[in-house]
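Batch 3, record 17
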Amino acid sequence: MKMHKVEQLIIATVGFFWCFLMWFSTAAFSPSIAAHYHLSLAALGLLASSAIWMAPIGRIIAGWASDRFGAPRTFAVILAGCGLVSILSAFTTNYNLLFLERVIVAIAGVSFVVGIQHVAQWFDAQEIGTAEGLYAGTGNVGAGMGALLLPRIFGTNYHAAFIWLGAIAIVIAAWYLLRGRAAKSIERRATVQRRSNVRGTVFVWSRYIAIALMLAYAMSFGLEIAMNAWLPGYFTRGFHDAILALGFSGVAGLQIAAGTFAAVESFCASLFRPFAGYMSDLFQQKGWTPLPFIARTLPYAPRLHWLGISLILIALCMIGLTMAGLSGSLHASVLLLVLLGICISFGTGGTFALVPLLFPDRPGAAAGFIGGVSTAAGIVYPLIFAGGSNIHLGYLHAAVYMFVPIILFYFWAARYERHPEEHGLISPALLATEQA
Amino acid sequence: MATTSSNTPTRHEPWFKYGVATLFLEMAIAIAVSAYSLYMTFNGLGGFPGKH
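Prediction for the assembled complex:
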């Protein structure tokens, strides 16, 4: 049966969208769950944070599994497993069991790297940025849609929501198994499967360029998830009087305004991501290589330059946020926040336009490492933001002490004009990998 | 600017123009929703859809 790659892109995107919807469905109903079980503020915080617990290690395993068993099987297992537990959680009456079940449902968030691997196995180099961007950007919207639509559709009846989310996930799992194909060709599939071993994984993890891309993703996606958690509190404290002057009153009013600024940043970071992938393709097509030091003759060199520009823009936006905050201008701060959201999307889209090209024989292992380990940064940034003497200085500290070193390391790792993936902490000869 | 990566025009497959149209639509949605949300907030009328 002949399969078209656009069909594979649609299946992966729908599966990812639904997984993200399930991933953040607990957060969408956390007020209802808290009211039902009379949860304390600390318990509510624990429930909210549990969504991210499985991401780092889960994405690493999922990336390897997609190389080994193929994306359709891996994605179907994630969808069906999380869907089944979501349905079970709707009938649970014990909070501890419900908490455990929702942690398992949150495993759905690891599906991101499986779809990245799937799309990489079907699309050619000149269009990989746009294809991966459409997949990741459109799928990411599932998180926002969950927060917006689920409480409106189901009200406080989270039991019904969990049943519907789980049932539809099982249907999508069946569709994925029925219509999904792991790769464009048998040869491509066989090569990836053959190299999905421990040596291959160690090879990827020890490459300087893979570490640089992981740090680049930590600087973009890691920052995005950190800002989601940090921004409402930042605006409430840092611009308290300015928000009240807009006409809002009380804690609820402050939450609406501060939550809106955070949501706008996150929304732009998601919906501009396909454009970022397209820009990577455009850089490639036009052959633009404007930055110094970074390689210029590699087949994908322009994409390295696009990501380098994105990282610099993120750092500049962070410095700008501190300056706007210190000046006391709410309007300038929000404007820079929107720009930051767009630049973050440039970083996320630019990173995953490169990963499949740098590691074409191990796309899942590479996506798992880069997309998994980087999420831990989401825990680190808020600690830096909150650690300064002035609430506005945290962005500057993160930019100077974390982002500048990351950018310098990226430039250093991306300078090789031939096979950057051969340079790493361990010699490829020692790992005895079959390099093409 | 030196490059050896691509000096010939890239011929895209038919799906590509629909993909590009989709991504521009997504960008337009992001700009429209952001503009609406920020207008509402800066005028003290509400906020991001769902945050009224």
